[in-house]
Design goal:
This protein has helices spanning 4-17, 22-68, 73-76, 84-92, and strands at residues 105-117, 126-138, 154-164. Helix 2 (22-68) runs antiparallel to helix 4 (84-92). The protein is α+β, with helices and mostly antiparallel strands. A hairpin with an 8-residue loop joins strand 1 and strand 2. The termini are far apart. The chain is 44% helix and 22% strand. The longest helix is centred in the N-terminal third of the chain and has 47 residues, at 22-68. It has one domain (4-164). A three-stranded antiparallel beta sheet has the order 1-2-3, covered by helices on one side.
């Protein structure tokens, strides 16, 4: 009978030279990193797309408000809060009326404001309108991004745009 040391040595030498299954082990080691990178890319793209969608909606709402508000709004002393529901509709919906935001993204509020700028303009004080929208993004891959037991499940930001009133 052969000594145990010789048998183990021979088996280890045979196993040491065998390369079958190495690619599977390497793939298993890299897979979590690849999945994390994929999740970061998807979430980053969703966040940028949503931000651009809301920014375009706020820009359109500001242009609308600059066209429908009267040019003498500062001298008459009126407010732009009466247009809030129309502005919310513009920011929240696309041209076709369908929601332009994916699931997990919501517009919290849309707020119009008016500033009267005094200067040497055609109309002085010159009315300038601003539309602000508060946006909340809820991440679907929250579990992947949790580190040390803490995670960021939502991000809230505000988008603003302003335009000079050209009047109706």
């Amino acid at each position: 009978m052969k000594p145990l040391k010789t048998v183990i040595s021979r088996q280890f030498t045979r196993f040491h030279g065998d390369q079958s299954g190495a690619a599977l082990v390497e793939f298993a080691l890299i897979l979590p990193i690849m999945l994390l990178m994929f999740a970061v890319i998807i979430e980053g793209a969703r966040l940028m797309w949503s931000y651009q969608s809301v920014a375009a909606g706020v820009r359109d709402a500001t242009r609308y408000l600059a066209r429908v508000a009267p040019v003498d709004i500062c001298t008459v002393g009126r407010s732009v809060t009466a247009y809030t529901s129309d502005l919310e509709t513009i920011v929240r919906s696309g041209k076709s009326g369908y929601s332009i935001f994916p699931t997990g993204i919501s517009v919290n509020s849309v707020t119009p404001s008016l500033t009267c700028v005094v200067g040497t303009y055609r109309v002085s004080p010159a009315p300038v309108v601003q539309v602000s929208a508060s946006l909340t993004v809820t991440f679907p891959f929250v579990g992947i991004f949790s580190f040390n037991g803490e995670s960021i499940s939502t991000v809230t930001t505000t988008i603003r745009d302003q335009n000079r009133v050209f009047g109706s």
